[in-house]
Amino acid sequence: MNYIQEYINAIRSGEIIACQKVKKLYFNIIEPILKDEHPLYYFNEKKAEKFIIFAEQYCRLSKGKWNGKKIKLLLFQKAKYQCIFGIVRRDNDKRRFKELFDVRGRKNGKSTENAVLGNYLTLERKGAEIYVAATVSSQARRVWEESQYMIDCSPELSRALKYKVFPMPTIYSKSTGSYYKVLSKNVKTFDGLNSSGAIIDEVHELARAIYDVLAQSMSAQEEPLLSMISTAGFVKLGLFDDKYDYAKKVLDGTEKDDTFFPLIYELDDPEEMNDEKMWIKANPAVGVIKTYEYIRDCLSKMKGDPNFANTVKIKDFNIIGVQNKVWLEYDVFNVEDEYSEEELKKFDNTIVLGGMDLSRTGDMTAFTTLLFDKEKHRPIAITMYWVTAKFIEEQTKKNSKIRWQAWIDRGFVRISGTEQIDYHDIVNYILNNFKQHGWMYRFINYDRYSAQYLIKELAMMGYAEKYCLIPTAQGAQTLSIPMQTLEAHLITKVICYQNNPVTKWCLSNVQLEQDRNGNYMPKKVNDNRENKIDGVATILNCYVSLCENMDYYLN
After folding, report:
1. pLDDT by residue (tens digit) across 161-179?
2. What DSSP designation does 278 have?
3. 472 strand-pairing partners
4. Model confidence over 211-267: pLDDT tens digits?
5. Domains in the chain, start-ordered, CATH in brackets?
6. What CA dihedral angle connects 228, 210, 131 and 520, to 10 degrees?
7. How many CA atoms lie within 13 A of 38 on its CB side?
8. Of 291, 423, 414, 280, nearest in space to 357 by CA
């Protein structure tokens, strides 16, 4: 079957509504090859069919109502993979396309495709090195685990492919000598890669350096494939924007690159959000994988929530240029998740990270200790807060809605000093953590502009300046990656903050602020001084050190 031509015919007839970028790809770049009008490339239907047969005969789904059922690729997916594997050079039958950039709305089957592709590339040729990468290793691992599930559910695949999860999640084939691994985020560990295939999940969150190393690692391969499937994102001037702009040039013909496959599903006009017939432009699987009801609910919700509206525009319709939003919806971090005191004892006498956010008078001071449950690959944030006696007096006088006294009674907040925070209290807290729990602070990150007296005292206690005590700029350039990582950890329920109500309140007060280079940093919602975010600031300070060596601390 020539699914590419079938897809093109359906678009031309109006049976399938497509955006201008999809039309440019299939009408201008792909169709001349199908008509045998291109001097360098032709369509090999036999090669094109192999991936589709593999996906539909040997791979099964794991999610929701489709759990355990065989995959049935949709027409847009079949057309795409026939292009990737079936369009080849006339002189040597090698694949034309080496890099795939696929942008589509969320819940349109991208994770399933990635999982199938990982297994397929592992079996396609001998000695292949296949990697899956994402902003955080847990996100990349979800794709790999989907591939693992497909192996478990298929007798044929389980004979052809084996897997192990330690020390690094790896699927491998004894017959081909190929393997498929989850890639660490640490760019330093990429030296020596000779990859023939790579899958990048959610390009909009990925560091440019990781893409560059992966792309360069394929230079010695004759038929490499770098597959990127993503929604649009809030991170501006990053890898996604680079690839999106490049894709536009290739589609418009101003940039010639025969190896690049730019497939962008998006609305041609933001007003098309109001027309259900146009939703398929950004959501090619709508009506099958993604329901119309789901999109209707999102549109209904966004009318009363401007911040959620930005998420819908970006994630469901790939509208480029939406930048700022309130950081996280309450449901994301409102989880009753905590370790018992007995469970926490197993982290006694271990390496930890620390983060401080200090104040003098009318604000909170906070200190977070970040523990690491390496069995579950989870950071655990233990945060203590201090306020002055005068601060509590003022809050009581104005009948503050915040339950300060209840938090003090329960031990989440401590009173320190009368009008100014007594920094000796924070020093004693850190020292007591060592005496009681044996927590050994590898690094303590702090705001370099407000902590000098405390730092000198800690240094006298044995915490070496510039080695353990790390001055940390509280700007977007420093905090952007830690903030994106913390967001991913909160969404996926990786981090546990011990259900601390003060921390939960701080999380609800965070709004994103973006600099001209597209970097993020936290700010108080509506710049309201009453909306404290100190707990989040201390966790982010810990994440500055955590992000520098994620695998060391979590694995």
Report:
1. 999 988 889 999 999 999 9
2. G
3. 447
4. 888 898 998 898 999 999 888 876 555 678 889 989 999 999 999 999 999 999 999
5. 3-271 (3.40.50.300), 272-277+285-323 (no CATH), 332-554 (3.30.420.280)
6. -60
7. 19
8. 423
